[in-house]
Amino acid sequence: MFSLKDKKIVLGISGGIASYKSAILARRLIDAGAEVRVIMTSGAQAFITPLTLQALTGNPVHTDLLDTAAEAAMGHIELARWADHILIAPASANLLARLANGFADDLLTTVCLASEASLFLAPAMNRVMWQNLAVQNNARKLLERGATMFGPDEGVQACGETGAGRMLEPEAIRDMLIDKLGIEPGDNRQTILTKPLSTSATESSAANQPSAYATHHRSLHGLNIVITAGPTVEPIDPVRFISNRSSGKMGFAIASAAIKQGASVTLITGPVALQTPGLVKRIDVESARDMHKAVLDNIPKADIFISVAAVADYRIDQIAEEKIKKSDPGMTLQLVRNPDILASVAAMPERPFCVGFAAETQSVEEYARGKLDKKKLDMIAANHVGQAGDPVFGSDNNSLDVYWANEGHHHIAPAQKKQVAAELLDIISERLTESRH
User: Fold this and answer.
1) Which of 167, 228, 327, 358 has its CA 20 to 30 A from that of 117?
2) pLDDT tens-digit profile of 326-340?
3) DSSP notation for 215-252
4) CATH no. for 203-435
């Protein structure tokens, strides 16, 4: 069994209603073998008492920077040196801002600045606060400095609103920490593992038969992923264009799921009416050629490229400078081929792991495997579109058949796109790991 045996963890608790979960988290960390010492901010103490955490951990809880008794022995420095890892859960918007800007105005921020321990953050706040550009910039700044984010999760919040901003459940945070730091008893090596995370019954597929991947959310921490999403728009004249039915929801769901698994994500999207997932770098484009250029500009640092966008195969040869008048009974448009973005990336000498998407109206496996071989992809995800009573475009649900070389195949049952995205990323993670061995 993998554990946190002999890990010394400072559990930081900042102000927020989610701090009640921190009491459970402390016990879960100890149960996994960690030694835990707790630092609470003044805001955290308004929601939960230090005595509760002291009883659960068996250690005194630290609250004050200028504690005369503790500072006689340089208490904050002792804590900073003692810790192997610092986990802050919940990490409020205020705490993220102070850490991002180097403040040391309380014990928790001072210990973080004075410590060489790795830093893990589990954000928790109102959904609008989490989406605020200032908060996103602070979170991104901390990631760039080497911190790791666990979450936030999506769902109903204490304020009654629904969205991204909930703190992950204690068991999920523990499992993600084990995934990052866990060691097998008797093994002194520190290694990144792919231990499954706990998932709730509500996340099982619509068929209620979760696959081997459905509850095994693997870590993509440290990987750079470029994702394309949505349609492209090919202008005919200043007011008309050719496009398709893609809503972008599947690509955005994959981007959101990848962030939750610890990846850095660049999302290149055609025109869609969707909110950018937290911590995702979004690049808006219109035409296929715009998307092609944006992908090539961002692909050199990518470990994985997931081409979800419904890119137009053709564009207008000559775009009219003025609106075409309705004078003739018919109109002929001369079309020329657009660049094949996925094939261009897959043909690079030093290319990322390439995943394509195929929306087919018939012979799904035949056409999908044809694209897999022709474009020399690592994997392709296909679905059957255009079926009566089973919409895909614009829907919040999807199902996929994933194919790879040597007759590799996995079916992702119908479910919400966010669940399908998480399962697809699990398959990609496993295939990527196997390709590197």
Assistant:
1) 167
2) 877 778 889 999 999
3) T-----TT-EEEEEESB--EESSSS-EE-----SHHHH
4) 3.40.50.10300
Q: Which two tokens stand for residue 391?
A: 């919409």
Report the C-alpha gap between 131 and 248 in whole angstroms: 19
Domain 8-193 has CATH 3.40.50.1950: yes
**Distance between the two ends of the chain, CA-based, in angstroms?**
24
The pLDDT tens digits of the residues spanning 339-395 come to 999 999 999 999 999 999 998 888 889 999 999 999 999 999 998 876 555 555 667
Domains 8-193 and 203-435 share a fold: yes
Tens digit of pLDDT for each residue in 100-156?
Answer: 999 988 899 999 998 888 899 999 998 888 888 899 889 888 888 888 888 887 777
Q: Determine whether 112 is an active site residue.
A: no
Single-letter residue type at 174: R
Domain boundaries, the chain: 8-193, 203-435
Take residue 37 and report the two structure tokens written for it.
């010492």
- Which is catalytic among the residues 1, 55, 74, 159? 159
pTM (two decimals): 0.66
A 10 A CB-CB count for 79 gives 22
